[in-house]
């Protein structure tokens, strides 16, 4: 195997390209500019704050709420007495309103297991009332990796998703108000991100 460096100029005036200090090593390269993955920083139970999650600057669709006022008598998922996030779009938002919750940046080329708990109330149709997307670093949408199809109302449910992307990405939770009469409440709690696939599901 040989390595060839090629230089091409588009104009007749040419140009200059400098090259120096080329080296080879028998061990794999490490990207020193990319921060290592931290499961602690990637997840949140929202007991103290939003952790490393944040929202769109133009709106605040997600709010930290406690047991009272609370749409669930059982309280949050963590302890029943703590905080969780609530996206309240019931009769307050325009059709098509989307509440986005952005997660911290995750290093690329690693397999992750995303787990979280959610509860939904008030929507006429469940499909896509809560969805999870993968965004690139510059907030460009890559793909939807999960969405609600059907779910019991007002009950904490667990979701888990295995994903892997070559570039650094962010997990984004979206709550969608489809129409004035089809908006509702979406609760989110105990988000965790771990390395590897979701091979052994956790239970409530």
Could you please describe the fold and organization of this structure?
This protein is mainly β and 204 residues long. The chain has a single domain, classed as Jelly Rolls (Sandwich), CATH 2.60.120. It contains one helix and ten strands. The protein has a five-stranded antiparallel beta sheet, with no helix packed on it. Strands 2-3-10-5-8 form a five-stranded antiparallel beta sheet. The model has no long low-confidence stretch (mean pLDDT 78). InterPro entries: ConA-like_dom_sf, MAM_dom, MAM_domain-containing. Residues 1-31, 42-200 form the MAM domain. It comes from Mustela putorius furo.
How do you describe this structure in short?
Helices cover 2% and strands 36% of the residues. By secondary structure, it is an all-beta fold. The protein is elongated and about 65 Å long.
Question: Which structural class do you get from the secondary structure elements?
Answer: mainly beta
Output mean pLDDT.
78
Please report the total strand number as a whole number. 10
Under the CATH scheme, the architecture is: Sandwich
- Largest sheet, described in full? 5 strands, antiparallel
Measured as a percent range, the helix fraction is under 10%
Sequence of strands across the biggest β-sheet: 1-4-9-6-7
Instruction: Estimate nothing, just give the exact number of structural domains.
Output: 1
Give the overall shape, derived from the CA principal axes.
elongated
Instruction: Report the C-alpha radius of gyration, rounded.
Output: 22 Å
Q: Provide the succession of SSEs.
A: HEEEEEEEEEE
Number of helices: 1
Low-confidence stretches: none
How much strand? 35-45%
State the name of the first-level CATH class.
Answer: Mainly Beta
Per CATH, what is the topology? Answer: Jelly Rolls
Give the termini distance in whole angstroms: 54 Å
């Amino acid at each position: 195997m040989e390595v060839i460096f090629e230089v091409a100029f588009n104009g007749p005036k040419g140009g200059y390209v400098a090259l120096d200090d080329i080296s080879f090593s028998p061990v794999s390269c490490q990207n020193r500019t990319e921060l290592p993955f931290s499961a602690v920083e990637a997840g949140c139970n929202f007991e103290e704050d939003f952790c490393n999650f944040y929202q769109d600057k133009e709106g605040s669709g997600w709010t930290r709420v406690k047991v009272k006022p609370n749409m669930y008598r059982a309280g949050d998922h963590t302890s029943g007495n703590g905080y969780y996030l609530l996206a309240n779009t019931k009769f307050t938002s325009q059709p098509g309103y989307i509440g986005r919750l952005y997660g911290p940046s995750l290093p690329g080329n690693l397999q992750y297991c995303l787990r979280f708990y959610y509860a939904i109330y008030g929507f006429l149709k469940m499909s896509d009332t809560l969805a999870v997307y993968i965004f690139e670093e510059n907030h460009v949408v890559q793909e939807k990796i999960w969405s609600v199809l059907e779910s019991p109302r007002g009950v904490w449910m667990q979701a888990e998703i295995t994903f892997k992307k070559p570039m650094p990405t962010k997990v984004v939770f979206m709550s969608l108000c489809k129409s004035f009469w089809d908006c509702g409440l979406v609760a989110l709690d105990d988000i965790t991100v771990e390395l590897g696939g979701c091979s052994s599901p956790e239970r409530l």
